[in-house]
Specification:
Blueprint: E1 2-5, E2 17-21, E3 24-28, E4 34-35, E5 37-43, E6 50-56, E7 77-81, E8 86-93, E9 98-104, E10 115-116, E11 125-128, E12 134-139, E13 150-155, E14 167-169, E15 179-186, E16 189-196, E17 204-210, E18 218-219, E19 226-227, E20 236-246, E21 252-260, E22 272-281, E23 284-287, E24 296-299, E25 312-315, E26 324-327, E27 335-338, E28 341-345, E29 358-363, E30 369-377, E31 384-392, E32 395-404, E33 407-416, E34 419-428, E35 432-439, E36 443-450, E37 453-461, E38 478-484, E39 489-499
Antiparallel strand pairs: 1-24, 2-3, 3-5, 4-26, 5-6, 7-8, 8-9, 9-10, 11-12, 12-13, 13-14, 15-16, 16-17, 17-18, 17-19, 20-21, 21-22, 22-23, 25-39, 26-29, 27-28, 28-39, 29-38, 30-35, 30-39, 31-32, 31-38, 32-33, 33-34, 35-36, 36-37
């Protein structure tokens, strides 16, 4: 019996797509306005995942200048093409160049420069046919074909040009926002899997099949094959945007997004990556036996798979690692990794600007846990620096130090929509503090250790940094190190993030 815990990749890792080569599995997720873009993970058993890199690591691949919150890179698809022994990642930069793809021999990178595809819509995907031809599909929100739902056509992988005009495929069961198309072939059937209902509470996965790749697709009479739209009290909500994979034992699995709600229907960690088994009944896929997705899952798997818990993460911040991302394309002059830790130097931008402030963030992975950061406001600093619980430009809680004249102050600020409230401003003689954030599903508690003493700063409700409290967004909360203002400078010596109840 195989047992594992969902989400298999916790925190803001939405829109998963998966492929395999040999006995190696690779998975990518969306990244929106954060850089590098499109994190990529590796696994041998589908439940234990390790990040091995990002697909978009250069500005020539990923231009995020002045990208609004929750724009930039939307859903990505990863596919292995056995005909040229290359991996392809295809996605959309919705604010800049539209649909494009990159390729790599090694999924860890480096990945190629982008190849643009002249087709609108979002959520592109590739299907590689047995004869070696490549086919590109995306949704047709640009209405280039009225009510088409999706457009697909054969494509030249070297140029990104269609070798014949794309044609409309199945458009779904009539729910709003049809997206996330994937094509599979099994037992002589072609399957078109999509998401519908919007990536909120009505999210769902539906499917249709055809005997011909470009033929008439018959929808499954029991659609949707995955949804939590009627699971009001369930911890997991908004399941959808799935991708399917067959393992070495001939068993099928689905990876998909969902979120863990806190206050009813509120979520702040972002949409996360989940896993469930798939059975085939009369050549139709049934996800998790048609039952709701649970945190603790069991499956009659004939291999011993032990899920390794990820309960703690610690770093001395002496070098960048791939758990951390920048807000948009980074101003590299702001970052200096030293033997003592990361020195952040502020520029003219703040966390509330649609720009690239001095920002290095790591996704909050646990609803309940603690984060600790050691920092020193450097003697020549003239601005502010600290740690933020950051959702987006108008939703963040900030614990920071600032200097006015020759005096240091420890401060706690809340930014919620158009409300900016400085809740605490405490004079302190020291330059060195340890910032402590205790997270629970409904609230954060903010403290600092100053001169060996614990200083309580205040609390913040998680719903104030939740998607549902603001204009619709698609990201999640980060613990972010930052510095604001030209002349601000701070040393961050360590970061520790752990799971579980804290004092």
């Amino acid at each position: 019996m195989m047992k594992y815990t969902n989400p298999i990749i916790p925190g803001f890792y939405p829109d998963p797509s998966i492929c395999k080569k040999g006995d190696d599995y690779y998975l990518v997720t969306s990244s929106f306005e954060f850089f590098p873009g499109v994190p990529i993970f590796h696994s041998k058993d589908l439940v234990n995942w390790k990040q091995i890199g990002h697909c978009l690591t250069r500005k020539s691949q990923l231009d995020l200048e002045n990208i609004p919150a929750s724009k930039g890179i939307y859903a990505a698809t990863i596919r292995y093409n056995p005909h040229d022994d290359l991996f392809y990642m295809v996605t959309t930069n919705v604010t800049k160049i539209g649909n494009f793809y990159v390729s790599a021999k090694d999924p860890a990178g480096p990945w190629s420069e982008p190849v643009l595809v002249d087709q609108g819509g979002i959520d592109p995907s590739f299907y590689f046919e047995d004869d070696g031809t490549a086919h590109f599909i995306s949704n047709a929100r640009d209405r280039s074909v009225h009510k088409a739902g999706f457009l697909m056509g054969p494509i030249n992988l070297q140029t990104g040009e269609f070798t014949s005009p794309p044609v409309p495929l199945w458009g779904g069961i009539g729910q709003n926002a049809p997206e996330a198309p994937h094509i599979y072939k099994r037992n002589g059937w072609y399957y078109q899997l999509i998401a519908e209902g919007g990536t909120e509470l009505n999210h769902m996965v539906t499917i249709a099949r055809s005997r011909e790749l470009y033929g008439h697709y018959e929808p499954f009479p029991m659609n949707p094959i995955l949804t939590h739209q009627n699971q009001k009290g369930h911890l997991i909500q908004a399941t959808g945007h799935a991708d399917l994979i067959e393992d070495d034992q001939g068993r099928w699995w689905a990876v998909f997004l969902g979120y863990r709600q806190t206050h009813q229907y509120f979520h702040h960690l972002g949409r996360e990556t989940f896993l469930a088994p798939v059975e085939w009944v009369d050549d139709w896929p049934i996800i998790n036996g048609g039952k709701a997705i649970e945190i603790e899952m069991e499956h009659d798997y004939n291999h011993d798979v032990v899920q390794r818990p990820k309960t703690a993460y610690t770093t001395g911040l002496k070098s960048w690692d791939m758990n951390w991302v920048y807000l948009r394309n980074p101003d590299q002059s702001c970052y200096d990794f030293t033997e003592k830790g990361l020195v952040l130097s502020g520029n003219e931008y703040t966390l509330s600007d649609i720009a690239n402030p001095a920002f290095l963030g790591i996704r909050q992975p646990h609803l309940t846990g603690k984060a600790e950061f050691e920092m020193e406001l450097l003697p020549d600093s003239k601005g502010e620096a600290g740690v933020s619980v950051f959702y987006k430009f108008d939703a963040h809680f900030d614990i920071f130090m600032t200097r006015e004249g020759k005096k240091n102050y420890l401060c706690f600020r809340k930014v919620v929509g158009d409300i900016v409230h400085l809740e605490k401003k405490i004079p302190t003689k020291t330059n060195n503090i340890t910032i402590k954030i205790c997270a629970k599903p409904l609230e954060y508690c903010f403290c600092a250790k100053v001169d060996g003493k614990k200083v309580y700063l205040g609390k913040g409700l998680t719903r104030h940094v939740s998607t549902e409290a603001h204009e619709l967004g698609f990201t999640g909360v980060f613990y972010a190190l930052y510095a604001s203002g030209v002349g601000s400078k701070a040393l961050f010596a360590s970061a520790k993030i752990s799971q579980g109840e804290q004092d």
